[in-house]
Amino acid sequence: MHFQLTEDQRALQAGMRELLAGRFGRDTLRAAVDAPGTLDRGLWRKLGEAGFFALRLPEDEGGVGLGLPEAVLLFEEAGRALLPGPLIATHLAAGVVKGAADGSVIVTQPDGALVEWYEAADALLPPADTAEGGFADGALTPVRSVDPLTPLHRLPEPAPAADPLVGLLTAAEQLGSAARTTEMAVQYAREREQFGAAIGSFQAVKHLCAQMLARTELARSAVYAAAVTCEAADIAGAKLLADEAAVRCARDCLQVHGGMGFTWEADVHLHLKRAWVRKERWVSEGALTELLAELLVEVG
Amino acid sequence: MDLTYTEEEEEFRARLREWLGQVLPTLPPKPDPNDWPGRRAYDMGWQRRLYDAGYAGLHWPVDAGGQGATPTQHLIFLEETEKAGAPYVGANFVGLLHAGPTIAAEGTPGQRARWLPPILRGDEVWCQGFSEPDAGSDLAALRTKAARDGDEYVITGSKIWTSHAEVADWCELLVRTDPDAPKHRGISWLAMPMDAPGVTIRPLRTLAGSTEFAEMFLDEVRVPVANRVGAENDGWRVTMVTLSFERGTAFVGEVVACRRTLTALADAARKNGRWDDPVLRRKLGLLSAEFAALWRLTQWNVSESEATGGVPGTGGSVFKLRYSHARQELYDTAAEVLGAGSLDVDHEWVLDRLSSLSYTIAAGTSQIQQNIIAERILGLPKGR
């Protein structure tokens, strides 16, 4: 047993972080916020070149031939950077929808009562057991999305339950966001002074930060393990813990930032709002906890 | 990232399972919890069986008499012994997990030869004399004084929270040897024989009704200078070596046991109708996710320590913070399943609920644990 990142996995993670730092830094993020509803197709193709979408396709089908643990690491980075777009649907569409693998075609997928990025997407990935095809004109109702970087449409009928991989990869994005807001809170707590001292020297602030780290690291173990085992219970638990980590850490990060955290200018709200969007994906919290309770009985 | 065990590790597990299958039926009946000599004999008997089978000091270095097993093998050992219902480490806890490893790391060859083999064989019991009435979380504020008199220290003071004091042969004792030095720099680590004149033990009754701990009063107790491990006034550093052992794999068996308890809770709730309450079901579901993740975090930490050569990583503090809270949640939920039955202290879960209250306090309160995480892992400035 070696439940740690391999050297190759570390390199993959570092490469993705570098790519996103170069192509989707803070200025680009804020520019995206100011131009809602549009996706950077150049960046999308760049992601395609880097193997983000074709990562799990076999090499003889033009893919990278890696597995879910590697995919989870890349989606974690995407979550850290608040990278917008229907990343998971396009990743899952690689090899299914032509052009998805290289990032030239943007694919989205209905999930529950909603579909993300419907107008910007080129194609629709139907959930496994529904007929292929789009929606009739006027069938979808635009939603004024709480997250400025996730346009939403409401479906006439809720879509059938999505692929568990949507849950796992969403959990990976949540993990990345939780890790990032923890860092942001710690950095701010080191710099911001009140009462003549860095606020990070006050225990009340320290304990918020410590709980953020604990939540994030527990979620990390769950998400990575689920990527390795791919078992239903592990994915359900990973989604629950990662949702909690992302939402709670963003809330605590906001709290540590004080009044600044309540401004549009600070990035904290972008993490919180995206975490809320991701929490609604796949299966509800209630249904996931019920599922895990049922599994307890079956095991026993 | 790999969660499959190697062939070698699976062989280790298979051999261990086979041995456990043979040895567990030969154990004597478990002693009454209040029968301390009986508990000592039972725990030492188990340790002797481990020794004879080559499992004693599994994670100790070979040159200290241990097996030099990898952290993963140690994890497998703790998991399998718990699953098989084998006895806990019990009275051997301090010797195997604190005092022994400290002597192995910091002791002279003579000290290692004197103290380590009896720990491994289950011949001698150790207890821990660290905390004092006025030195709990702030352990370095300890005041028990050791004055040098020729080749002996003369020790006066009091200790508290000493487990197994009534049946211990030795005490790993922290004393102040330089009252004028800064508080971390004037401490020494001594091995004190428990039968030395001047040692008085008073059992301390906990809220669970049992006497798991004791207070220890030291009145001019004479201990040879030769019993000091490490240099004089270097005891704080020596102790930190010990404490890092405590946060490594100390709770592996308990996490396995908690997950089994969770299944038993679901079963009990099904039988008594409490299962119809969706709030309770969801609590159980969430706890299942939490304990599954704690198990994965344990595997993560063990793999990390394997990669870094046995040094427990920072994940130990995170684990302790979340586990101690989760354990309390687990037994509060057990009380919900039991309903009025949760008032009957004869029920195992009720006793466990009471003892779970110590988890957010012992071995570093959750508040201190959060300070450690914030300062040492996150790098936030020291302060109040």
UniProtKB/TrEMBL annotation, chain A:
SUPFAM superfamilies: Acyl-CoA dehydrogenase C-terminal domain-like, Acyl-CoA dehydrogenase NM domain-like. It holds the Pfam family Acyl-CoA_dh_1. Its cofactor is FAD. Belongs to the acyl-CoA dehydrogenase family. Residues 6-91 form the Acyl-CoA dehydrogenase/oxidase N-terminal domain. One of its GO terms (molecular function) is acyl-CoA dehydrogenase activity. The keyword Oxidoreductase applies. InterPro entries: AcylCo_DH-like_C, AcylCo_DH/oxidase_C, AcylCoA_DH/ox_N, AcylCoA_DH/ox_N_sf, AcylCoA_DH/oxidase_NM_dom_sf. The keyword Flavoprotein applies. This is Acyl-CoA dehydrogenase, N-terminal domain.
From TrEMBL, chain B:
GO terms for molecular function: flavin adenine dinucleotide binding; oxidoreductase activity, acting on the CH-CH group of donors. Keywords: FAD, Flavoprotein, Oxidoreductase. One of its GO terms (cellular component) is plasma membrane. Residues 233-378 form the Acyl-CoA dehydrogenase/oxidase C-terminal domain. Residues 127-220 form the Acyl-CoA oxidase/dehydrogenase middle domain. It holds the Pfam family Acyl-CoA_dh_N. Its cofactor is FAD. Residues 6-123 form the Acyl-CoA dehydrogenase/oxidase N-terminal domain. InterPro entries: Acyl-CoA_Oxase/DH_mid-dom, Acyl-CoA_Oxase/DH_mid-dom_sf, AcylCo_DH-like_C, AcylCo_DH/oxidase_C, AcylCoA_DH/ox_N, AcylCoA_DH/ox_N_sf, AcylCoA_DH/oxidase_NM_dom_sf, Mycobact_Acyl-CoA_DH. CDD domains: ACAD_fadE6_17_26. PANTHER family: ACYL-COA DEHYDROGENASE, ACYL-COA DEHYDROGENASE FADE29. Belongs to the acyl-CoA dehydrogenase family. This is Acyl-CoA dehydrogenase.
